[in-house]
Amino acid sequence: MSSSCAVLPSVRTQCFNPVGYRFIAPVRLYHHRSKCELNRRGFTLRGIVAAGVSTMCSSLITEPAEGGIMRLPFKSEGYNFWTWRGHKIHYVEQGQGFPVVLIHGFGASAFHWRYNIPELAKNYKVYAIDLLGFGWSDKAIIDYDAMVWRDQVVDFLKEIVKGPAVLVGNSLGGFTALVTAVGLPEQVVGVALLNSAGQFGDGNVKANESEETLVEKFILKPLKESFQRIVLGVLFWQAKQPARIESVLKNIYVNTSNVDDYLVDSITRPTADPNAREVYYRLMTRFMLNQTTYTLDSVLSKLSCPLLLLWGDLDPWVGPAKAERIKEFYPNTSVVNLQAGHCPHDEVPELVNRALADWLSTLTPETSLTDTVKSA
Hints:
alpha/beta
């Protein structure tokens, strides 16, 4: 992998898969000096005052899971809710310290960070949000677009987090984290991507649009939409079956031991919402098929904070070549390569938690916010 940054020998480690002790290739971490160095003292004060950190520690809600790692308990009713533009938004909030916001991928929810929230909450104020249309958030009947989720997370940072924060996103959540950081640079001090969605291309080039004829507008287009609804209706019914969800997950997880009832249930339950089928149709026809409007290069060219790539190199959907290209385009990037699939945070959570904690320590003040608050 080409890089303008040297590999730090101190962080090259040999790691083992905690389940079955299968050898995991050495984790490679590439560092680049941040161009936006933070004033540590001012950063600390802003983090305490603006984020509204309480002197009372938030209780950590955890349960032991197989292998000894702690896990966020599954709650069918959800955890916390916030009203945004008239819609109910679900989120989890745990811990105390500098804020870290976790953003899930397509079809997932805050519960997909089940193994990351308890560990990160030992030292940070952790939020995990359900994007509109997913998880325990409302299934709003709107035209979905990347900017809808950007606006949602921007307002979440302003109204709930209320201060500087680091964003961490997987897949769709990764691209959402990027556009949010560009939209609110004064509040986002770092972004971590785990096998992020998004395509490279020229964001300034728009597809040629010819005028619709009367036949196209009133006959062909309605027929096309009707056909799409029928086909996507069948696909939605298939996609929400627990056996189908389990099968897809096992294709994108290299080690499938964490593909369990908890995970499948967290994805299946939201599909029972009366609006879920219509949301699926809108996502597939108006978002998934029109992702060239906002491209990775157009977003990265406006990014101004440190970037971390935690990349599952064995992802059948988004391989390591994409991480290499992001690194080449945006040098202010650290890269950790993991022998995992599309969701490394859930497949190899201990490795991800460790790498994320190491990187976060380079962004946040040497004196932790928790210690500062206690001595106040």
